[in-house]
Every structure is written in structure tokens, then in C-alpha cells.
Design a protein that fits this description.
Layout: E1 11-16, H1 20-30, E2 35-40, H2 43-52, E3 55-58, E4 61-62, E5 69-71, E6 82-85, H3 89-100, E7 109-111, H4 118-123, E8 130-134, E9 139-143, E10 146-149, E11 155-158, H5 163-173, E12 178-181, H6 185-195, H7 197-204, H8 208-212, H9 215-235, H10 250-254, H11 258-264, H12 278-284, H13 295-304, H14 310-324, H15 332-339
Parallel strand pairs: 1-2, 1-6, 2-5, 3-10, 6-7, 7-8, 11-12
Antiparallel strand pairs: 3-4, 8-11, 9-10
Helix pairs in contact: 7-12, 7-14, 9-13, 9-15, 13-14
Length: about 350
Amino acid sequence: MLRKGVIMQAVHIGIVGAGSIGCFMAAVLAQQANIKVTLVARSHQLGSLQTSGISARWPQGTTQQHYVEVTDSAVSLTDCDLIVIAVKATALEPTLRELKDLIPSRPPLLLVQNGVGIRELAATVVNNSLYRAVVPYNVVQVQPGVFEQTSAGILCLEQSSLPVIKQLADAFEQGPGVQQFPDIHTVEYGKLLLNLNNALNALSDIPLKDQLETYEWRRILAAAMREWLLICKRSHIKPFKMTNVSPRLIPWLLELPDWIFLRIAAAMLQVDPKARLSMWYDFVADKPTEIDFLNGAVVRLGQQHQVPTPVNQWIYDQITKRRYDPQQVLDPRVCCRLLGL
């Protein structure tokens, strides 16, 4: 569907990465008659995606089922007007190195990874124009080819005058929603504040709901967040408010006693009792984690702005050790004492 009175030129958008986010974006874009979508997937994903097609669901709507072009060869991207890079941050550099020899430097790239320093990393590999987007919600595959948004939020997109990015924004505006930002750093910094719990959830080795209901784990998270908020202040960047609670108040909320927190933060705790965050699944699958782009980024920027980050450094070190000792069990009360909390 096009906006009334507006004629949009047909464009070709490629998406590299057929995980939940990549497939969700592909389904939303495929709704538009003027957008051709090519999805680059791993070889083992081709059969299921080609057979089932893809569709997207969000709280207020759904797309039709679409059979977009699905391939395991990036050669199909050579005539794209925009390429969305939807792999995890840990796969960004090797993915761009593979693409560099196959695609010209002409098409702009839209990077949708979690973390801080994503654009800077990409710029060391490719010469393409680089743009950022942040997906603040979770997407899961609920059945073959059906990708559902399971938490609140809308796509946060770096503002651009490029017609193809405007068309992408229009597609999301007519679908699950989009908000454009002249300074995407505020969104990156706001999302990182929430993502600091990814590593702690993995270290706790318990579901997210149980972790958030444990005072000592919340206290460690609050301390890690305060370090990051001080860095944001020194950087003169105000983190975007990603939840109903102001970023500066989240650590205060987390440190409330259980009997108050469980009442005030009831909405925060309305999650699947078995749900865990992505880094825990990385551990289980023995995959590289995004720690360098999350707590590791806090440590690096803390050094740059002369802000001590002992809690984030401890979390970073524990994740590193966990890869070599997966059976390690941490007692959060002991951890709090070690950290002086």
C-alpha cells in the first residue's frame, strides 16, 4: 500500500541474515508492491523458507504470507538499492568481508545489530555508506515461516534523505511502526542500558523472570547500569527512553526490596516463565557471545571517559571464564560481596 498521492519508484532491498529479525523485516517489506525483497540465508534454511514462505505478526496487525526470493548466494544482491545486514554483532565483520568482494561499494548498508560501535566496526571493512537501525523488541518464530513480535516497541531508524530508506520507513509506518532519529546514538545508548542484563541472565543460568525476582542479581545489574549512565553523562549523550521508566530511574527501581519491586515492576515481570535472554542460548549452542559490544563496550568507553567500570569489567571477565568452565555456578549473594555491593 502506498501513501495517497505519492508515487514510489520500485526498489530492491536485500537482507543478509535469515534469523527472526531478518525474516520479520523481509515480511514487512514484502507487503509493499514497490519493494522487491531478496533474503540471503544459510544453506540449511533455504528449504523451509522456500516451502513455508514468510509472514510477520505484531500486536496490532499481521502481513500476508509472502514467497520472497531466498538464496544462499550474495551474488543476488549486486543490483540492490539497499542491503540490510541482520546478522548478530559477532558475525558482522566476517559477513562484511565476504560481501565486500561480491558487491560494489555503491549500495548503502543498514546495520541492525545490538551494541555500541557497530558502525565504526563496519567502516573498517567496507566503503559503503552506513546507516543504523535498532530493533527494541523481541521476535520469535512461532511456527514455520511465521515471525511474531513478542514485546513492545517500534523500529528505531536513523533519519536519512535517501529515497530507499524513506520507502523502508514507509513500509514499517504502515506496519508495526517506526520512529526516525537524527542522532541514532541516543537509541544505541538507551538500548545498551537494557542489554546489560543479557550477560547477567546467562551467568545466572535461570529464566529471566526468576533472575529479575532475585534481589542480588538486580543489584548487580543496577550497579552495571549506573556505570553506563555516568559514561553517557560524560559523553553528553542522553539515552533514549526505551521503556515506560526513565533510564536514570531504572537502577533505583531494580534496587527496591523484593516486596516493593514485585508490585511496582509487575509489568516488567510479565514474561514467559521459561524465557531467557539471547546470550544464554549462545552459551548452550557454544556460539560466540556479543559481550564485546555490550559490557565490553562499557569498559572501553569508561576508559576513554575516565569512568571506572569495575562491575561491567567483572561481568565481562565472568563471561570469558564461563566459555572455558561452562559448569561454573555463581551465587549472587557471594558475587555482591565480592563487588562490594
